[in-house]
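Milestone 3.1: sequence recovery, worked example.
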């Protein structure tokens, strides 16, 4: 799953709900076709306007305990800087987004319910409360109940720090292309 900046921006501009590239920092998320159970197999790209800043690995799927699955498309100004569970710096959901529920136990992402729209606490955070470690975790475990979770702690710190100047963060989620 390697893309050029031009490929990402072109895909972002043709994605559902596109209403312009945000001027500040925003996230472009790619959900892997592999859909490996309990693995960080998705990608997060940080942009500032149309300028690429950083890429890392993450999950956009539920972990072992989760049931929420964010729908692909643009979600404008849905995150603000705050704390995840009062324990770590994070991008915290502050606006409703579309999602589905997946109550199956087949270890795949297959939401079969209708699309809901609400604030349900699907934050952007990392996979360890000790965020000052320089580790890359491979298993999601209980870290995502629908949140977007970055598994590379060094990259995560960079994304949170670099995006501080942007008050409200948008994201575009697409399936692997």
């Amino acid at each position: 799953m390697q893309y050029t900046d031009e490929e990402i921006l072109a895909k972002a501009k043709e994605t559902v709900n596109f209403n312009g590239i945000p001027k500040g920092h925003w996230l472009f998320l790619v959900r892997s076709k592999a859909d490996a159970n309990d693995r960080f197999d998705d990608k997060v790209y940080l942009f500032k306007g149309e300028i690429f800043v950083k890429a890392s690995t993450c999950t956009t799927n539920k972990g072992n305990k989760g049931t929420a699955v964010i729908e692909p498309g643009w979600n404008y100004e849905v995150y603000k800087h705050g704390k995840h569970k009062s324990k770590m710096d994070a991008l915290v959901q502050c606006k409703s987004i579309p999602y589905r529920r997946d109550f199956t136990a087949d270890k795949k992402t297959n939401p079969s319910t209708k699309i809901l729209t609400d604030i349900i606490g699907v934050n952007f955070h990392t996979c360890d409360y000790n965020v000052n470690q320089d580790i890359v975790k491979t298993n999601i475990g209980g870290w995502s109940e629908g949140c977007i979770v970055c598994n590379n702690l060094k990259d995560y710190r960079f994304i949170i720090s670099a995006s501080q100047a942007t008050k409200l963060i948008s994201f575009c989620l697409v399936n692997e292309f």
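Residues 5-175 form one domain. The radius of gyration is 15 Å.
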